[in-house]
Amino acid sequence: MPLSPAITDLEQLKNHPSIARILAWNASMIRAVKFDREEMTIVVDRSGIREACALLRDDSTCPFNFLSDITCVDWYPAEPRFEVIYHLLSIPNKERVRLKVRLNSASPAVESLTSVWPGANYFEREVFDLFGIRFTGHPYLRRILMPEDWEGYPLRKDYPVEGYR
Amino acid sequence: MILNMGPQHPSTHGVLRVILEIDGENVVRLMPDIGYLHTGIEKTCEAKFYQQVVPLTDRIDYLCPLTNNLCYVLAVEKLLGLEIPPKAQWMRVLLNELTRINSHLVWLGTHALDIGAMTVFLYCFREREEILKIFEMVSGQRMMTSYFRVGGLALEPPLGFFDRVRDFAGYFPEKVDEYENLLTGNPIWMMRTKGVARMTPEDAIALGATGPTLRGSGIDFDLRRDMPYSSYEKFHFKVPVSQEGDVFARYMCRVQELRESIGIVRQALDGMPEGPIKANAPGVVLPDREKMKTQMESLIYHFKIITEGFAVPAGEVYQAVESPRGEMGYYIVSDGTAKPYRVHMRSACFANLQTLAKMCEGRLLADVVAAIGSIDIVLGEIDR
């Protein structure tokens, strides 16, 4: 089916359960929303991401109780450079939502979600390993895929595809 | 004592290193160390055209290559807004289910072999041989098939393909009975798997487990039924769920899935629609070779697609499918050019591996092997 244009207006989307829940808590935490290709994306302020995820997990009408994925996109040389993406899934309601946090290249750090979902552990280690984003409060933030003594963050856009060896 | 279950080990199903801290026979702490098979596929995808990424996706979870292909092409088709003809969708379901049977046969054979049942290994690989021959018939390759393309299938299924699959579907259920005969009621098997590596449903959800690892603990969630894709909503199948959460429960889930998958294959054969196998999108889908050799327009399209790729409208999409191991997802970000800006694979085993520590700490050392087998890990998917 042909693509319909994305909806980015908060007024039209505020009834979606995930947005309604975050708006009820703290409306200033939502920086932007987008509903595109039948997927809901919410850009959240980086200080409130852990609280927002905990609220979405414990919501009574539409509990987003499953963390599908944490990943990152590097928009070098644009600022804010990094976008950490969280994919949540509601197993009872069969809904997905995507939360995003935008980080600058100067100090890419965000709070860890391991206190909300222990399963965030490996995903955050991978984002740290490949992009260099620090997750404060992570129990064991070490490289997971690259060797421990590797220097550099391979998936950043200023790291060549061929590598340095 | 700290023991290293090193990357070279017959029971770790790939290059997985597990660092075990043991006290006599009990495991005190367990830490997996991965990254031995990391090949930077996500980075490589950023340097290739969208259609060139398809062979890369085969190699991520090499035991179910068609499932990886399917997930990727569904994600790109979602980005493009393409509509896929019904025959292509039904063929995708048929091959996806054969891939699921293929993967579960390897799992069953190697899991049983780790625990000690060597005959099951040979029986499973005997059936798998027929499936690999079917894949070779349809795509030319036994394992890394790359048969799906953005917009449909690569080629028409050859003459005699459906009869061959029908023959296979005719004798396969008795073979599953054979495997169950050897294992399910076997006292040695039950002693090694019942009550071993138990996991509660709350832990399974909190740790991000999906697939049979989650369904073995009682959570009834299957992406094929609950968030259907590629016309799965037209098929009738049960989703096996077990309540105990131990190795035996996950084993029963997967063996029942073998039976359900062959049922879906039969439904796909019986109801296979007629029609084109590629979508009607000349700028994205390669034209037929006959048209390309005779019509100028098709030749130009063919040339442009191969040399310049096709531009995908900017945006991002997350598409998940139910792979034999759980939720496999592709997150693709497009910036409007012919090469993806970012491709991320959410691999089921990467998250499932986190449950290993929870399952094995405080239990016996010999159960670690059973637990690793029951999660069904594939290091290609974990390390990418």
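The first strand of chain A starts at residue 30 and ends at 36.
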